[in-house]
Structures are given as C-alpha cells and as structure tokens.
Amino acid sequence: MEQLTSSLAPSRSAQKSSVTASSQQGAGSVAKRLSNELMTLMMSSSPGISAFPKNDGNLFEWVGTIEGPPETIYAGLSFKISILFPSNYPYVAPSIKFDTPCYHPNVDITGGVICLDILQDKWSAVYSVQTILLSLQSLLGEPNNASPLNPDAAALWNKPDAFKVQLLKHYRLL
Amino acid sequence: MFGEFEELGLIDRYESVIASVGYEHIEAHVLETCTGQWGNTMLDVLRSWMSDKVVPWMLSVVAEEARSMLQGVGSRFDFHINKTLCDLRTREIFDIIIDFPDSMGALNDLKDCLQRVDQRTALVTALRKANRKRLLHPGADTKLILSQYVATIKCLRIVDPPGVLLFKVADPIRRYLRDRPDTIRCIVANLVGDNSDGGDALVDENEPIVPLQQVMDSMDDYGDPNWEPEPVDAGPEFRTNKPSDVISTLVSIYDSKDLFVKELQVLLAQRLLAIKDGNFERVEKERRNIEILKIRFGEAALQVCEVMLKDMTDSKRIDGHVQSQKASNVHPTIISKHFWPALESSDMVMPGQFQELQDLYAQEFTIFKPDKKLKWLPHLGTVRLELQLDDRTVEADVLPLEAAFIELFSKKDEWTLEELIAGVGDIDRSAAFKALVTWVNMGVLKEDPENTFVLLERAEEDVSGKRSPEEWGVSAGTFWLPIDSSVLALIGGGVNVGPELPPVITAQQQQAEQMKVYWKVRPFIPSQPYPAPKLTIRQFIEGMLTNLGGLPLDRIQTMLKFAPGYDQSIEQLATFMEAARREGLVVVRDGMWRLNK
Q1: Cβ contact (<8 Å) for A43 and B539?
Q2: Over the stretch B458-497, which tens digit does the pLDDT of each residue have?
Q3: pLDDT, tens digit, for every residue of B370-383?
Q4: Chain center to CA of B156
Q5: Which of B103, B145, B203, B346 has its CA 20 to 30 A from that of B76?
Q6: Which residues of A touch B546 (CB under 8 A)?
Q7: Which residues lie across from B481 on neighbouring strands?
Q8: CATH 3.40.50.620 fits A25-170, yes or no
Q9: Which one of A50, A56, A59 has the shortest CB-CB distance to B543?
C-alpha cells in the first residue's frame, strides 16, 4: 500500500506541473494568436472598423471603433466597443460590449451588451476580431428585430425619423 | 652530373629542393596553360604532360637505385597538379559559371579534382564571396541574378551531383532574391516567354514541361533502393533535392506558388489589355502559354486566367452582336470585374460625343445581356480620331484623356487648365498637363499664357512670331470625328461596384500603394535597407490613435511593441510622427498625438 502511494505521489505532482506548463503554453499561444489577429487587422484596410489593445503588455483587452455603415441610419456616427478575450480564446468567444451608448434593437442601451448569435452560441474558433467587427458593423444596418434586447428600438425601427431622434438623444462621443 | 651527386650522397640531402623545383614548375605550367581555358578538360593534358616531361626529368635526377622513391614523388606531383588546378578553378568559378555551358571542361576537371583534393569548403567560400561581391548587390539586374542562379544550379549539379555545394551556395542567392521586389515578375515574365526586352530565357526550350514539384517536402522514401547517405559535409538543414526542373527551383524561392499565380494574372491582364484591334492571334498565343503553364501550376490555380481569356473572346462576340444591332465606333473589351486583377481607376468622364457613344453602346449591351451592367473605364484604351481644322486635318491615335480634352475644344477655343480638368472630371493635374502637351507638340494647341490653352485653327508657321487674336480664328467648322475608339468596359454584375480598384497594378505596386505614406517619410529614418516589417508601423499608429484617442509619444513607442519587428528608437519615432504631422495625417497638442480628422 505504502509502495503504491509512494509510486502515485510523484506522478501526481508531475501531472500537476505538466498541467500548469501546458496552461502557460496555452496563454502563450493565445497571445500569439491575438498578436497575429492584430497584425492582420492592421494590414487589412476594412473601412470603418478598427481595434487595438488598450494597454501595452496586455493583449487580452482591446478597444474597438466601428463607424456606422454608409446609407444606414448610423452613417456618420462612430461607436467605441470594448473587447475582452478569455484566456481560452479562440475556443470561447470574447466578451464585447458597446462603450458608446448605442440605440439599437439588439444592443442594451445602458450596459452596451450585444445580442449577436456569433458572440454566443454560434461562436466558432475560425472567427476573428475582424469578422466580429464586420458582423457588428453590418448588425448596425440590419438588426434582428425578432429577438430584441431593446424592444423600444425594435418597435421604432420602421420609423426612421423617430428612430434617428432617439439614436441621437442617446448618442454621445466618448 | 646527378650521377656524381648521387655518389656524393648529395641527392638525399637536396631531395626537398629538387621536389620544390618540381612543384614550382608544375604550378607555373598549370597556370600558364589552364588559366581561362574552360572549354576542354585539362586534367588529361596535364597528366600526359607530366609523364612526357616531368617524369623523364625526374628520372635524370634520380638514379636507377632510387626508382622506388620516385613512386612517392610521382603521386605527390599528381596530387599537386590536382591541387593547383583546383585552386585555379576555384578562383575562376564565378566566371566559369557565367560562361556555362561553354565551360563544361572546366567543370568536369573541377569535379575530378575535388574527388582527390579536399577543397569543397574553399570552393563554397570562394563562390559565395564572389556572388556577394559581384552578383548580390543593387547594381545587378534581377534578370541577371536569376540567370546566374540558374547557371549556378546547372554547374554545381555537374560538379557535385548530390547538391550539397549547391545548397550552400544557393542559400544566400535565394534569400537575396526573396528580398528583391521584382523577382516574381522576372520569373513570371520568363514563364510566359516574354523576352521582349532581350536576354536569354531561363528555361531551356527543350526541357520537358512537368508539374511543379514540391521541393519542400522531403520525406525520405524508405523504399528507395538507390538511397545514399547524405554527404559528410552536408549541414543539418540540408535537403536532398532530387534533381528538379529549373522552374520548380525558382518557384521554391518563395514559400507558396500563390504569389506567382497572382503575378501571372497581373501580367496576363496587362498583355491582354495591350492587344489592340482585336488581334486574335495574340490572344491565342496567350492561351497557348496558359495551357502550358497549367501543366506546371495545375488547372485550378489558373482558373482565373482562363476566365480572363474567355472574356477576351466573349468581348469580340458581344461586340460583333452589338455592332450588328447598331453600328458603333466603340469597341470595348468587356471584362469580368471579379476575375481580373484590380485595374487602375479614374474619375474621368468622357465629355461630349464620347459619352453619347458610350451610352448608346451600353444600352445595346443591356438589351443583349439584361442581367449585366457595363461600367466604363474610359481612361484605358485608345482613341483614333480625325480633327478637321480650318486649314488641315489631323489624324491621331491618342489616349482617351487626350481625346477628351480635344473634344472640349470643340465647344470653345480657349480653356484654362482648371476649366479643362473640371470638364473631364477629377483627374491629376500633372496627367492633364501631359495630355495637353501631346496636342501642343502636334501643333494643335498652344499654351498662351501659362496654364491657358488655345486651339490653333490654322497651323502656326513661326511659333515665336506675332500673335494677333485674329490668327486663332473663330471655331467655325471644327468638329471631332472619332473614327474608332476602343474603350474598356467593366461588367459590374449589377452590384454596387464600390470604389474601383485598379487591376493591372502589380503586386508590388499594390504594396507600394500601401506604404506610400511610409515611403514619403522614409528618408527621415535612415536605418535598414529592407524595412519589410516596418511597413505596418503607420497602420499600427493609425489603429492605436483611432481607438485610444490621443496618446503621448512615449505611450506610442511602448504600444508599438505590438508591431512585429519594430526596432526604432523614440527619437526616430518622433521624426516619423513629425513627418506625418507635416503631411497632415496627425496633429499634436499638449504632447498628445491625435489623428487629424
């Protein structure tokens, strides 16, 4: 029995250390993936979307900017969003919210929480910051009124003038 | 005399002296006979020379009894011939390669010598040094480097079939070529047999066309009965590349063949668009080229090229149909936007009758293909026109912009440069000026005073002569008759075409576009010659400032460590930002840098 435990003990600790090692390695690879995504985002010239890490030294917290797509009610406005990457990104979606108050059927006006399928159950590891930003940009022009987070906005969507008034009332530049 | 020496026992004593005399003689002879003689194998000649001349001389020195000793001396001399010749050829190797294939003899000599003399490292060092000094510098033409590289491959294969030497020598060349911006272009131009600018084709005409080999994957084939161990001096990173064809080797300079395929599309676009008057033989020629290239690159990779070629034939067919419905002077080349590389865009609008012709054609086209929409690229193409002036008729093949300007002069005779530019849409001032100068040179227009152009209804005999206003005449009977204008049209598939990208922009040009701003400020950052990773700095600063608002310089500096390869000091960054400020890209207030919006 004693022999058994003694033989188990080192293997357990070895296992433990290997786990920490792999999680460290994991963090390294997440950082690598994020810096690659940053590089891709910087090199691509998608108009109206942009994002950058908030602080040097921390790749897991980004600030993004989305300009309202032209020919939509949001044209000419720009919205700041914050992006928080989990340590097991990209297997889990980053949490994203609007910092600029955004009057939109699928955005919570006070908290900035966004209701977008690819940020919840439809998330896949092939998505990237760029695809998220592009989806958000197109969400601005084409809301999903079937599952609104902001029922007032959803109700007003078909009355552009009244919608615009509400939008500008809540909108403020950060 | 030697006999007496022998008796005196002097031979033993001076043997080394005699030997060194022999060595010197051999050296002098080898250098004298072999320098620059690369056509034939010299080794055999040297050997027979030794048995004819040197050996009898030695015999005269050494007495009968010492024959046994001679054996050793003989083989030492033979070795010395090899060594001297090898040294000589090593010194000459660069020129030998240039002379290939006329230097086959020298290469075979070198191969034999290297088997006896261990000079492989020396050869590699010498060749690398020569390459660095004579080949891999900005003064050398890329084409030249490529052909020398190909020659090097062929030569070193002869000298050293397993390819170890080649691997060592080729590495710096390949790395250098990868940095040259026009390497891909040169290779691709060669692939399509574009030898218009002279020079030898890299590819042997007789070489069979084979699919590209994946040189990179070198999984050892364990079942290969002819397997041989890697040579002893092979480095750990050495890969036996099975003798592959030249093109495969060249393409393998880059990691993927996609770059080539892209460049190939650009080149094909340029060549197709340059074809005038529906010269279908040339289209057929291009088609043949592409068919050959398909064997190399695979069918799928060249799908796009296939579409481009089909566009050319379709254009002719469509044009034939439209002309049959309503004869028109316009003969567009209709291309599918999604399959052609980005074409140069322009905001130019053709004035007057050109516009009418375009519209008429577009109408007919819409009837023929209801689901497609023509988007004209009026700045590409050529216009053949005939100007009827008071006293003369001018016929000319001109660029559309030039035609547009002269069309404007049918309205009135005197225009300022600004009015002219406004008349054809938004175009570059220098381009406008250049177009006008064409007409000035033809004696149709005159600049007087500066930036004002007048039409010369009557040819001016003496340019410096008096210019009374009457001389310009009234534009009574002036009208423009385009005989044949071929304009490019673009099918926009009914979709919003968006900001037009210019195809026929090479990959490098696109890259250059991206770094335009960077290059403008480049002189202020005098560090490395190849700042590849730094091109993105501007984008990084832009991204940073867009999202984080104003930032002090030191924050920008620390944040830039997200940009891979960033190694500038904060002072260099300051000059960079200052230059960007002068360009109006950023503003600075209270030490905080912001984007200028």
Answers
A1: yes
A2: 665 543 333 333 333 333 333 333 334 444 444 433 322 2
A3: 777 777 777 777 77
A4: 25
A5: B103
A6: 50, 52, 65
A7: B386
A8: no
A9: A50
Half-sphere exposure of B414 (CA within 13 A, CB side): 8
What does the pLDDT look like over B15-57, one tens digit per residue?
777 778 878 888 888 888 888 778 778 888 888 888 787 777 7
B322, two tokens: 């439209």
| B512 shares a domain with B408 | no
Indicate which CATH number applies to the domain containing B527.
1.10.10.10
- Return the structure tokens found at B200: 């030898």
Convert A107-130 to b/e letters by CB count within 10 Å (16 or more is b).
bbbeebebbbeebeeebeeebbbb
Taking alpha carbons only, the member of A130, A131, A101, A128 closest to residue A114 is: A101
Q: Say whether pLDDT at A68 is over 80.
A: yes
Q: What pTM was computed for the model? A: 0.50
Instruction: Confirm if B401 and B439 have CB atoms less than 8 A apart.
Output: no
User: To the nearest whole angstrom, how far is the Cα of A14 from the nearest Cα of chain B?
Assistant: 34
DSSP for B202-235, please give it. Answer: SS-TTSPP-PPP-SS-----TT-TT--PPPTT--
Chain B residues lying within 8 Å of A56, measured CB to CB: 555, 558-559, 561-562
Instruction: Using an 8 Å CB-CB cutoff, list chain B residues near A80.
Output: 547
B403 and B324: one domain? Answer: no
Is residue B68 predicted with pLDDT exceeding 80? no
Domain count of the fold of chain B: 3
CA B195 to CA B147: how far, in whole Å?
13
Note whether B549 and B594 are within 8 A (CB): yes
Q: Which two tokens stand for residue B304?
A: 């796009």
Which domain covers residue B554, as residue numbers?
507-595
Q: Which residue has the higher pLDDT, A167 or B403?
A: A167
Residue with tokens 């005073």: B449
Torsion on CA atoms B479, B484, B485, B489, rounded to nearest 10: 140
Is it true that the peptide bond before B101 is cis, omega within 30 degrees of 0?
yes
Structure ipTM: 0.77
CB A147 within 8 A of CB A106: yes
